[in-house]
Design goal:
2 domains; 15 helices; Beta-barrel_MTR4; nucleotide-binding; hydrolase; helicase activity; helicase
């Protein structure tokens, strides 16, 4: 954690110690009621409301579209109306979802805003309203002004009014230092969130290290990443056994690999994970070729064979699926069984009961027939 973050945290704790944490948290909740107001705005601007409610008639808020022959007149190179004095008036289309609020006060807009005098009149009216209402324009009331009677909207309006009353009555509302205290409280909340994220990452790193220590057959970094990124979670135990076979060294097949759909996606996920690990190592200034790492780490030559054997195919059937020698297939299957037991132990160490059962089931599905006979000479 950076020193500036620690400094902010210490100063924030010293300052917040002057006030009860509960009161400051309550005040923070009152101030942060904008989410309720956004729900009300989203209801007000619904087409069935603003199209039929006289408060939101389009012609009262924006001028009618100008004919094509008149477009561009009175505008500068950027498409804005020319400025008169210090202020200028421009017509800018704004999507309704971007509105932050609506006022109950309306301004009569001339039907044609192209003449400078018409625009200046509207500008003066807006400035006059700002002087009359220095605390802000009165908001449009969905119930009183628009006549909306839906229980959900009425309840939202009631909640906003209650929150505003509680906010004004809170002792911190009139305090000269309330904004500063609120700022420190928000900063402290952000720091606490960062701390929790760092702790979560530390726990995950510790679990990954614990799992990696129990794996010595395959690439422990890549295998551990698959355990924690959810790749194994989406597979059944037959697919898990087939995917795990990619980590076992074996003879290279001269035939082109054609995988069934249930194996192609897991293999792609495995290759993507290996590529990410290699790129991270390269970014850390390690001398590594990404594609060579992926090719040397992942050996998918017997994925289909192991998958079919795990699902109950006979030895005669699986040896016809590849040009790799029978003895190499048997050696890989036995080493794969050991590897799956290591994965089961790693899953048990990090508390992944579902993965533990899945690895155990994958191992059990392999141990049958001639591949696991005590002696091939019997």
């Amino acid at each position: 954690m950076e020193m500036s973050v620690l400094k902010d945290m210490v100063l924030g704790n010293l300052l917040l110690s002057q006030y009860f944490q509960a009161e400051l948290a309550e005040y923070h909740n009152f101030v942060g009621h904008s989410s309720v107001e956004k729900k009300i705005i989203s209801e007000i601007i619904r087409p069935e409301r603003y199209c039929y409610t006289w408060f939101l008639q389009a012609e009262r808020f924006a001028p009618k579209a100008m004919p094509a022959s008149s477009r561009g007149k009175g505008r500068n190179a950027r498409g804005e109306f020319e400025a008169h004095g210090r202020n200028s008036f421009s017509m800018i289309p704004v999507p309704l979802p971007l509105l932050a609020g609506l006022s109950s006060i309306r301004i009569a807009i001339p039907p044609d805003l192209r003449p400078p005098e018409a625009r200046q009149t509207v500008l003066l009216a807006v400035q006059e309203l700002g002087k009359r209402y220095p605390q802000g324009l009165p908001k449009l009331h969905p119930v009183k002004d628009m006549g909306i009677e839906e229980p959900e909207i009425v309840d939202l309006v009631r909640r906003v009014e209650e929150l505003e009353q509680k906010l004004c009555a809170h002792p911190l509302h009139k305090s000269a230092q309330s904004e500063q205290h609120l700022k420190w409280y928000q900063r402290k909340a952000e720091l606490n969130h960062e701390i929790q994220q760092l702790k979560s990452k530390m726990r995950e790193s510790q679990l990954k290290g614990r799992a990696a220590c129990l794996i010595d057959t395959g690439d422990e970094l890549l295998v551990t990443e698959l355990m924690f990124n959810g790749t194994f979670n989406d597979l059944d135990h037959h697919q898990v056994a087939a995917l795990a076979s990619c980590f076992i060294p074996c003879d290279k097949s001269n035939e082109q690999i054609h995988l069934r759909s249930e194996l192609a996606k897991p293999l792609q996920q495995l290759q993507d994970a290996a590529r990410r690990i290699a790129e991270i190592q390269r970014d850390c200034k390690l001398d590594i070729n990404v594609e060579e790492y992926v090719e040397s780490t992942i050996r998918p030559y017997l994925m289909d064979v192991i998958y079919c054997w795990s699902k109950g195919a006979s030895f005669a059937e699986v040896i016809e699926m590849t040009d790799i020698f029978e003895g190499s297939i048997i050696r890989l299957a036995r080493r794969l069984d050991e590897f799956l037991n290591q994965l089961r132990a790693a899953a048990h160490a990090v508390g992944e009961a579902n993965l533990e059962e899945k690895f155990a089931a994958g191992s059990e599905s392999l141990r049958r027939g001639i591949m696991f006979a005590n002696s091939l000479y019997l």
